[in-house]
Design a protein that fits this description.
It is a single chain. This protein has helices at residues 13-19, 22-35, 91-104, 141-153, 168-174, 206-216, 219-227, 239-250, 254-265, 277-282, 284-293, 296-306, 328-344, 348-364, 382-397, 406-421, 443-458, 464-480, 501-505, 515-528; strands at 54-58, 64-70, 79-83, 114-118, 157-161, 184-188, 488-492, 509-512. It is an alpha/beta fold. Helix 11 runs antiparallel to helix 12 (296-306). The termini are far apart.
Length: 532
């Protein structure tokens, strides 16, 4: 036909009768049910497990302990945690795995709970102890990993399928778990259909309520809480106390910091008397005081430390001193030099900052973009990477955009952050060893890298759309691990360069008030609060 109109063909009477036959009606009803979302389609084979949501940790023998997650109908659905395999892989591990698969067959809107599951919580079948004893994660690593992971997930109910739970259920129900709060827990004889037997409205656990309270705090609120504990003294001119004092100044307490700095300004104490890399980083507090007060005495202290990069003839040295081949030196030396340049207007300090960065980059950056801590091993220590990332962010903040090195240093920052974001876990954390997801999630690396990325977004070195989610995830993780009394979870102890990957894996993970962790948390909080 040439009219160009669509023509509806007529259905012959016999075709109309066939269309209303019983098989066809059943087919139509089945299609309608599918459109309505009924769970009518049965899987042809076992539903594959999803990728692990996160790693609980790893055993003393290095065996990873994966955890799985199936989302509930809503973001605020109660959380149920199933645990099996407390005596090694056995029937309970298979039962928990079957429950995960069964729950996955439900439409998401028909899942009353968010399901977390650890099918094989003790793969090496060692004896566990709860609450854990010894140094995490050096002693009883399996027990510490499970205990602290449960605390941070803060489930509403924990169900443990095991003939020996080592006191886990009673400990969860009777003790604040890793300083958070109690969690309802009980042992079960079988996990088969256990989710079907639970009431759809579970009571929130104490741990869940406490975690909600923690993550609801604003960055300013967290900063105010941390400032009650950290940044109260200046007995050593090292970076740890300096960063906390910078946080105090951002909160408006400059006069108090000036009072603490008096001995270093009036000459009664020399901040370089026992100079190390740590004291170079400590001079950042004097740079901050110089900017806020315009007192030339603070600028002179910064300049004196930065001049250690030059010989008696004023020529640049190969690198700044005290680096000891460690990536820490990007943080300890480069921002100091850049601040000296900004305060004095002398571009030689920017030249030296660029030279020192190039020196450290050649020494410690790996081909994949991550940084080794030192040439002794290729281990990508978490805080070692954070020192490089945050150090460069602070350096670029003071660097003139017309300097020949500015463009390539920005590019180096962008490439390093891009490499790092691939390893941020589902809970927003970076780990003790960046590319070992079974190593413990570490507080300072997460706070420092969150600060660096936030600074990158603010200065438009990083695209906000791509990187804002990484900052938000990191902040949630840090705030969850920051108790209102200043206690912090999983801060890596002071760490010099180590000889092996295993040495980094077994560094103590502190759960307490800690000056280093508090300083980094305070810096991150004030950065997010927009306080300068």
């Amino acid at each position: 036909m040439s009219s160009g109109c669509a023509v509806r063909s007529k259905t012959p009477p016999e075709r109309r009768r066939q269309a209303h036959s019983l098989p066809h009606v059943l087919l139509l009803l089945a299609g309608a049910a599918l459109l309505l979302g009924a769970d009518t389609k049965k899987p042809k084979g076992p539903v594959p497990l999803p990728e692990p949501h996160s790693m609980v940790g790893e055993t003393a023998k290095g065996t990873p302990i994966p955890a799985y997650m199936v989302p509930g109908a809503a973001a605020n659905s109660p959380t149920v945690l199933l645990i099996g395999g407390l005596n090694g892989f056995q029937r309970t591990s298979r039962g928990i795995t079957m429950e995960i698969r069964k729950y996955l067959t439900r439409k998401q809107r028909n899942r009353p709970f968010r399901l977390l599951a650890i099918p094989n919580a003790n793969p090496d079948a060692i004896r566990l102890v709860f609450p854990p004893e010894g140094v995490a994660y050096r002693d009883n690593p399996e027990s510490h990993a499970l205990w602290r992971w449960i605390a941070m997930q803060s489930p509403d109910l924990v169900l443990i399928e095991s003939n020996e739970d080592y006191g886990l259920a009673d400990s969860l129900a009777d003790s604040p778990v890793a300083g958070v709060a109690k969690v309802a827990a009980r042992d079960i004889t079988s996990s088969e259909d256990v989710l079907d037997s639970l009431p759809q409205l579970l009571a929130q656990s104490e741990a869940h309520r406490e975690m909600d309270r923690r993550v609801a705090r604003s960055p300013k609120q967290v900063a105010d809480e941390l400032a009650q504990v950290y940044g109260q003294e200046f007995t050593q001119p090292i970076y740890i106390q300096a960063l906390a004092l910078i946080g105090q100044m951002r909160l408006g307490h400059t006069a108090e910091v000036q009072r603490l700095a008096i001995p270093f300004v009036n000459g009664s104490r020399d901040p370089l008397a026992q100079a190390t890399s740590l004291t170079l980083g400590g001079h950042l507090v004097f740079a901050e005081l110089a900017r806020k007060t315009n007192d030339p005495r603070y600028a002179q202290l910064v300049r004196k430390a930065a001049d250690l990069g030059f010989d008696e003839h004023g020529q640049m040295k190969t690198s700044m001193p005290y680096h000891d081949e460690m990536s820490d030196s990007v943080f300890m030396a480069c921002p100091l030099l850049a601040e000296a340049g900004r305060l004095t207007g002398d571009r030689k300090y920017f030249d030296m900052a660029a030279r020192h960065f190039d020196f450290m980059q050649k020494l410690d950056q790996r081909a994949d973009g991550l940084w080794r801590h030192s040439p002794l091993t290729d281990a990508a220590w978490g805080r070692g990477n954070a020192f490089a990332g945050l150090g460069l962010a602070l350096t670029l903040s003071a660097f003139p955009k017309d300097h020949p090195a500015y463009g390539r240093m920005v590019l180096a920052f962008q490439q390093h952050i891009a490499a790092l974001t691939r390893f941020q876990d589902a809970d927003g954390l970076w780990h003790e060893v960046i590319d070992r997801p079974a190593s413990y999630a570490e507080y300072t690396a997460t706070a420092m890298l969150g600060t660096a990325i936030q600074r990158g977004i603010r200065n438009r070195w990083l695209e906000e759309k791509s990187y804002r989610p990484h900052v938000e995830m990191a902040w949630r993780a840090v705030s969850a691990r920051t108790a209102p009394d200043g206690r912090l979870l999983d801060v890596c102890e002071s760490t010099n360069k180590q000889k092996t990957l295993e040495d980094y894996m077994r560094r103590a993970a502190l759960f307490d008030k800690d000056a280093r962790g508090g300083a980094m948390g305070l810096l991150f909080a004030t950065e997010l609060a927009g306080l300068q």
